[in-house]
Amino acid sequence: MKHLTKEQRYQIKAYLDCNKTKTYIAKALNVDKSTIGRELQRNSKKRGSYNPDFANELATERKERFASNRKFTPSIEKFVRTHIEDEQWSPEQIVGYCRTHNIPMVSHERIYAYLRKDKLDGGNLYKHLRHQLKHRKRPVSGKNNTIKGRVSIDDRSDIVNNKERFGDWEIDLIIGKDQKGAIVTIVERTTAFFLMRKLPFGKNAGELANMVIDMMLPYKKHVHSITSDNGKEFAEHQKISKKLLAEFFFAHPYSSWERGLSEYTNKLVRQYIPKKSIFNHYNDLQINEIQYKINRRPRKNLNYDNPKNIFYKFVNKKVAFAG
């Protein structure tokens, strides 16, 4: 992502003085709308006014501060240990919090490396993680090379990453006892509305693609992108993408946090279908009822409205997206 120049900041100021929208300004500067949004959020004065000189100085100062604090210093180590031991924060949560509050911090991968070394040295810091590094036992390579034409999540635009658009989805599978049977779950990133279906042929890529297309065709104009893990069951992603006219992205191998909403949604499903369940014991009617129940649950991050209500307000264009 390119940083804005001082000249561009003067242009932003001029457009703001002419009461132009963020969308208009982004097009004029040939940048993403989210870039303008972040610029105004991070570099405006406390009362909300925007001054290009002040904004440029603030951005430069932040860049220099972060550039000089990427080493795993004692203060960073103390911050990491405290928030993992006392608060059970994940490395991703630590990094995200620090970025939001302009606190110097290393990458989440660097924190994981520190945790693995601590474990090898006999430390127990890893035990405070929800996964206790279990998802790191497998080699972080291999799977991503088996799917033809895959597009990495690295190429996903900021408008998707920052959940600034309605119609971007995550997809995953829930697997039954002894790897028999599968359920596909698809969740919309801004509303948490989700769909789920049993897969009669399990993890077969062709049949999964047909099922996904069937599930999402009614919402085709509200499907801009889909993000999955690197399972071979998504090998027919190009078929899905072509039929729905949507982009299809793949997260990094064994990086479940990159599809956090999908992981969380699957945990909600597990309340009704526990791990090691035999999927043949659940018929399509029961699967639909579970989907309906979860979509009707009030959510704190939706101001205690529910995903179903918010989703269909967007579909019916009864709400404006707060981008």
The CATH architecture of the largest domain:
2-Layer Sandwich
Count of helical regions: 13
Report mean pLDDT, rounded to a whole number. Answer: 87
> Would you tell me which CATH topology of the largest domain applies?
Nucleotidyltransferase, domain 5
Give the ordered list of helices and strands.
Answer: HHHHHHHHEEEHEHEHHH
Description:
The protein is an alpha/beta fold and 323 residues long. It folds into three domains: 6-67; 74-133; 144-315, Ribonuclease H-like superfamily/Ribonuclease H (Nucleotidyltransferase, domain 5, 2-Layer Sandwich), CATH 3.30.420. Helices cover 43% and strands 9% of the residues. The protein has 13 helices and five strands. The chain has a five-stranded mixed beta sheet with strand order 3-2-1-4-5, sandwiched between helices. Strand 1 (168-175) and strand 2 (182-188) form a beta hairpin. Helix 2 packs across helix 3 (33-43), helix 6 (91-100) packs antiparallel against helix 7 (108-120) and helix 9 (205-216) runs parallel beside helix 10 (237-244). The radius of gyration is 22 Å and the shape is globular. The two termini are 19 Å apart.
Condensed summary:
The chain is α/β, with parallel strands linked by helices and 323 residues long.
